[in-house]
Amino acid sequence: MKDRNFDDIAEKFSRNIYGTTKGQLRQAILWQDLDALLTRMGNEPLRVLDAGGGEGQTAIRMAQLGHHVTLCDVSKEMIARAQAAAEEKGVSGNMHFIQCAVQDVAQHLESPVDLILFHAVLEWVAEPVPVLQILWSVLRPGGALSLMFYNADGLLMHNMVAGNFDYVKVGMPKRKKRTLSPDFPRAPADVYGWLEQIGWQVTGKTGVRVFHDYLREKHQQHDCFDALLELETRYCRQEPYISLGRYIHVTALKPQIDERTNDE
Protein backbone atom coordinates (compact mmCIF):
# COMPACT_ATOMS: atom_id res chain seq x y z
CA MET A 1 0.00 0.00 0.00
CA LYS A 2 1.24 3.49 -0.88
CA ASP A 3 1.08 6.51 1.38
CA ARG A 4 -1.24 9.28 0.17
CA ASN A 5 0.04 12.12 -2.04
CA PHE A 6 -2.35 15.09 -2.38
CA ASP A 7 -1.02 16.47 -5.65
CA ASP A 8 -4.23 15.47 -7.43
CA ILE A 9 -6.65 17.14 -5.01
CA ALA A 10 -4.63 19.94 -3.40
CA GLU A 11 -7.24 22.59 -4.21
CA LYS A 12 -10.06 20.43 -2.85
CA PHE A 13 -8.00 19.76 0.27
CA SER A 14 -7.50 23.47 0.89
CA ARG A 15 -11.15 24.35 0.28
CA ASN A 16 -12.72 21.49 2.25
CA ILE A 17 -10.36 21.49 5.22
CA TYR A 18 -9.15 25.02 5.92
CA GLY A 19 -12.07 26.83 4.31
CA THR A 20 -14.61 25.40 6.75
CA THR A 21 -15.53 25.58 10.44
CA LYS A 22 -13.96 22.12 10.72
CA GLY A 23 -10.56 23.55 9.88
CA GLN A 24 -11.05 26.74 11.86
CA LEU A 25 -11.98 24.82 14.99
CA ARG A 26 -9.16 22.34 14.49
CA GLN A 27 -6.60 25.13 14.26
CA ALA A 28 -8.05 26.99 17.25
CA ILE A 29 -7.89 23.98 19.58
CA LEU A 30 -4.50 22.90 18.23
CA TRP A 31 -3.00 26.33 18.89
CA GLN A 32 -4.27 26.37 22.44
CA ASP A 33 -2.08 23.31 23.00
CA LEU A 34 0.84 24.61 20.94
CA ASP A 35 0.93 27.98 22.71
CA ALA A 36 1.11 26.19 26.05
CA LEU A 37 3.80 23.83 24.75
CA LEU A 38 5.93 26.67 23.37
CA THR A 39 5.67 28.50 26.70
CA ARG A 40 7.02 25.43 28.51
CA MET A 41 9.89 25.13 26.03
CA GLY A 42 11.23 28.61 26.81
CA ASN A 43 11.85 31.85 24.94
CA GLU A 44 14.64 30.84 22.56
CA PRO A 45 13.90 30.23 18.85
CA LEU A 46 13.32 26.54 18.22
CA ARG A 47 14.28 24.30 15.32
CA VAL A 48 10.91 22.98 14.21
CA LEU A 49 10.14 20.18 11.75
CA ASP A 50 6.65 20.17 10.26
CA ALA A 51 6.54 16.64 8.87
CA GLY A 52 3.90 16.30 6.17
CA GLY A 53 3.14 19.98 6.67
CA GLY A 54 0.96 20.45 3.59
CA GLU A 55 0.15 24.07 2.77
CA GLY A 56 2.05 25.25 5.83
CA GLN A 57 -0.62 27.00 7.91
CA THR A 58 0.86 25.82 11.19
CA ALA A 59 4.48 26.05 10.01
CA ILE A 60 4.02 29.65 8.86
CA ARG A 61 2.56 30.68 12.18
CA MET A 62 5.54 29.05 13.91
CA ALA A 63 7.86 31.06 11.66
CA GLN A 64 5.94 34.23 12.49
CA LEU A 65 6.72 33.54 16.16
CA GLY A 66 10.43 33.56 15.31
CA HIS A 67 11.14 29.83 15.11
CA HIS A 68 13.19 28.20 12.35
CA VAL A 69 10.89 25.82 10.51
CA THR A 70 11.62 23.02 8.09
CA LEU A 71 8.51 21.86 6.25
CA CYS A 72 8.56 18.58 4.34
CA ASP A 73 5.78 17.12 2.26
CA VAL A 74 5.67 14.44 -0.43
CA SER A 75 3.36 16.62 -2.56
CA LYS A 76 5.03 19.04 -4.97
CA GLU A 77 1.81 21.05 -5.19
CA MET A 78 1.53 21.38 -1.42
CA ILE A 79 5.15 22.55 -1.16
CA ALA A 80 4.52 25.18 -3.85
CA ARG A 81 1.46 26.42 -1.99
CA ALA A 82 3.35 26.57 1.30
CA GLN A 83 6.24 28.49 -0.28
CA ALA A 84 3.86 31.01 -1.86
CA ALA A 85 2.04 31.52 1.43
CA ALA A 86 5.31 31.99 3.31
CA GLU A 87 6.43 34.60 0.78
CA GLU A 88 3.10 36.40 1.14
CA LYS A 89 3.41 36.42 4.94
CA GLY A 90 7.04 37.56 4.78
CA VAL A 91 8.47 34.61 6.72
CA SER A 92 10.19 32.59 3.98
CA GLY A 93 13.56 33.58 5.48
CA ASN A 94 12.68 31.55 8.58
CA MET A 95 11.59 28.52 6.59
CA HIS A 96 13.12 25.69 4.60
CA PHE A 97 11.06 23.54 2.26
CA ILE A 98 11.78 19.92 1.31
CA GLN A 99 9.76 17.80 -1.07
CA CYS A 100 10.15 14.31 0.36
CA ALA A 101 8.26 11.63 2.20
CA VAL A 102 8.44 11.79 5.99
CA GLN A 103 10.26 8.45 5.85
CA ASP A 104 13.15 10.18 4.04
CA VAL A 105 13.39 13.39 6.05
CA ALA A 106 16.37 12.36 8.20
CA GLN A 107 18.77 12.60 5.26
CA HIS A 108 17.74 16.22 4.68
CA LEU A 109 18.34 17.46 8.23
CA GLU A 110 21.75 18.69 9.37
CA SER A 111 21.00 18.38 13.09
CA PRO A 112 18.26 17.15 15.44
CA VAL A 113 15.24 19.39 15.90
CA ASP A 114 13.61 20.70 19.08
CA LEU A 115 9.97 20.27 18.10
CA ILE A 116 8.20 18.04 15.58
CA LEU A 117 4.74 18.81 14.23
CA PHE A 118 3.03 15.75 12.76
CA HIS A 119 -0.55 16.72 12.11
CA ALA A 120 -3.18 14.72 10.20
CA VAL A 121 -0.56 12.51 8.55
CA LEU A 122 -0.50 9.27 10.54
CA GLU A 123 -3.90 8.25 9.16
CA TRP A 124 -2.52 8.39 5.60
CA VAL A 125 0.60 6.29 6.30
CA ALA A 126 0.46 2.57 5.61
CA GLU A 127 3.20 1.67 8.13
CA PRO A 128 2.88 4.05 11.09
CA VAL A 129 5.42 2.66 13.56
CA PRO A 130 8.51 3.02 11.32
CA VAL A 131 7.51 6.62 10.61
CA LEU A 132 7.20 7.40 14.33
CA GLN A 133 10.62 5.79 14.87
CA ILE A 134 12.14 8.04 12.21
CA LEU A 135 10.66 11.10 13.88
CA TRP A 136 12.10 9.91 17.20
CA SER A 137 15.53 9.65 15.59
CA VAL A 138 15.56 13.29 14.37
CA LEU A 139 14.30 14.81 17.65
CA ARG A 140 16.83 15.95 20.22
CA PRO A 141 16.65 14.53 23.76
CA GLY A 142 14.30 16.76 25.70
CA GLY A 143 12.47 17.73 22.52
CA ALA A 144 8.73 17.56 21.96
CA LEU A 145 6.30 15.95 19.54
CA SER A 146 2.94 17.43 18.56
CA LEU A 147 0.94 14.62 16.95
CA MET A 148 -2.62 14.95 15.69
CA PHE A 149 -4.34 11.91 14.21
CA TYR A 150 -7.74 10.96 12.79
CA ASN A 151 -9.62 9.03 15.47
CA ALA A 152 -11.20 5.71 14.48
CA ASP A 153 -13.51 5.87 17.52
CA GLY A 154 -14.76 9.29 16.48
CA LEU A 155 -15.40 7.98 12.98
CA LEU A 156 -17.48 5.13 14.37
CA MET A 157 -19.51 7.48 16.58
CA HIS A 158 -20.05 9.88 13.67
CA ASN A 159 -21.44 7.09 11.51
CA MET A 160 -23.66 5.75 14.28
CA VAL A 161 -25.11 9.20 14.95
CA ALA A 162 -25.86 9.41 11.22
CA GLY A 163 -27.56 6.00 11.33
CA ASN A 164 -25.08 4.26 9.05
CA PHE A 165 -25.51 0.92 10.81
CA ASP A 166 -24.69 -1.32 7.84
CA TYR A 167 -21.53 0.65 7.08
CA VAL A 168 -20.34 0.27 10.67
CA LYS A 169 -21.15 -3.46 10.63
CA VAL A 170 -18.82 -4.09 7.67
CA GLY A 171 -15.95 -2.16 9.27
CA MET A 172 -16.37 1.26 7.61
CA PRO A 173 -14.31 0.53 4.48
CA LYS A 174 -13.12 3.46 2.41
CA ARG A 175 -15.35 3.74 -0.66
CA LYS A 176 -13.44 6.07 -2.99
CA LYS A 177 -9.74 6.56 -3.68
CA ARG A 178 -9.76 10.29 -4.50
CA THR A 179 -11.32 11.45 -1.26
CA LEU A 180 -10.32 13.35 1.85
CA SER A 181 -11.54 10.52 4.06
CA PRO A 182 -8.32 9.08 5.57
CA ASP A 183 -7.07 5.68 4.47
CA PHE A 184 -6.12 4.43 7.94
CA PRO A 185 -8.13 5.88 10.86
CA ARG A 186 -6.20 5.17 14.06
CA ALA A 187 -7.43 3.69 17.33
CA PRO A 188 -6.22 5.93 20.17
CA ALA A 189 -4.98 3.01 22.28
CA ASP A 190 -2.79 1.88 19.38
CA VAL A 191 -1.24 5.33 18.92
CA TYR A 192 -0.54 5.80 22.63
CA GLY A 193 1.00 2.33 22.74
CA TRP A 194 3.26 2.98 19.75
CA LEU A 195 4.53 6.22 21.26
CA GLU A 196 5.27 4.67 24.64
CA GLN A 197 6.90 1.63 23.06
CA ILE A 198 9.29 3.87 21.13
CA GLY A 199 10.12 5.82 24.28
CA TRP A 200 8.05 9.00 24.25
CA GLN A 201 6.42 10.26 27.43
CA VAL A 202 2.86 11.33 26.61
CA THR A 203 2.22 14.67 28.35
CA GLY A 204 -1.16 15.72 26.96
CA LYS A 205 -4.25 14.50 25.09
CA THR A 206 -6.86 16.76 23.53
CA GLY A 207 -9.98 15.89 21.59
CA VAL A 208 -10.41 18.00 18.47
CA ARG A 209 -14.01 18.60 17.35
CA VAL A 210 -15.59 16.72 20.24
CA PHE A 211 -19.02 18.29 19.57
CA HIS A 212 -18.87 20.07 16.21
CA ASP A 213 -19.42 17.10 13.91
CA TYR A 214 -22.19 15.60 16.03
CA LEU A 215 -24.52 18.61 15.97
CA ARG A 216 -27.90 17.73 14.48
CA GLU A 217 -28.43 21.30 13.27
CA LYS A 218 -25.41 21.72 11.01
CA HIS A 219 -26.00 25.47 10.56
CA GLN A 220 -25.00 25.87 14.22
CA GLN A 221 -21.43 24.93 13.27
CA HIS A 222 -21.20 28.33 11.60
CA ASP A 223 -23.93 30.39 13.24
CA CYS A 224 -22.88 29.52 16.80
CA PHE A 225 -19.15 29.09 16.23
CA ASP A 226 -17.96 31.23 19.16
CA ALA A 227 -20.21 29.43 21.66
CA LEU A 228 -19.21 26.10 20.18
CA LEU A 229 -15.50 26.90 20.46
CA GLU A 230 -15.98 27.93 24.09
CA LEU A 231 -17.64 24.61 24.93
CA GLU A 232 -15.15 22.57 22.92
CA THR A 233 -12.37 24.29 24.86
CA ARG A 234 -14.07 23.56 28.19
CA TYR A 235 -14.49 19.82 27.61
CA CYS A 236 -11.90 18.70 25.03
CA ARG A 237 -9.16 17.80 27.53
CA GLN A 238 -11.23 15.48 29.69
CA GLU A 239 -12.78 12.09 29.11
CA PRO A 240 -15.02 10.88 27.62
CA TYR A 241 -14.75 13.82 25.23
CA ILE A 242 -11.08 13.31 24.34
CA SER A 243 -11.94 9.90 22.95
CA LEU A 244 -14.91 11.28 21.00
CA GLY A 245 -12.85 13.85 19.10
CA ARG A 246 -12.76 13.46 15.33
CA TYR A 247 -9.03 14.04 15.79
CA ILE A 248 -6.90 13.64 18.88
CA HIS A 249 -3.91 15.87 19.54
CA VAL A 250 -1.15 14.28 21.58
CA THR A 251 1.88 16.06 23.00
CA ALA A 252 4.85 13.95 24.02
CA LEU A 253 8.42 14.47 25.17
CA LYS A 254 11.59 12.60 24.29
CA PRO A 255 13.39 12.08 27.61
CA GLN A 256 16.76 13.74 28.14
CA ILE A 257 18.18 10.24 28.62
CA ASP A 258 16.96 7.40 26.41
CA GLU A 259 15.53 5.06 29.04
CA ARG A 260 15.63 2.16 26.59
CA THR A 261 19.44 2.08 26.86
CA ASN A 262 19.60 2.07 30.66
CA ASP A 263 19.71 -1.70 30.92
CA GLU A 264 22.39 -2.14 28.28
Automatic annotation (TrEMBL):
Enzyme nomenclature, EC number: 2.1.1.-
InterPro entries, per the entry: Cmo5U_methylTrfase, Methyltranfer_dom, SAM-dependent_MTases_sf
SUPFAM superfamilies in alphabetical order: S-adenosyl-L-methionine-dependent methyltransferases
GO terms, biological process: methylation
A Pfam family this chain is assigned to: Methyltransf_31
Binding locations of S-adenosyl-L-methionine: 26, 52-53, 73, 119
Coiled coil spans: none
Entry superkingdom: Bacteria
Catalytic class of the enzyme: transferase
Record carries keyword Magnesium: no
GO molecular function annotations of the record: methyltransferase activity
PANTHER family: TRANS-ACONITATE 2-METHYLTRANSFERASE-RELATED
Family: Belongs to the class I-like SAM-binding methyltransferase superfamily. CmoM family.
NCBIfam families in the cross-refs: PRK11036.1
Role summary: Catalyzes the methylation of 5-carboxymethoxyuridine (cmo5U) to form 5-methoxycarbonylmethoxyuridine (mcmo5U) at position 34 in tRNAs.
Protein name: tRNA 5-carboxymethoxyuridine methyltransferase
Source species: Kosakonia sacchari
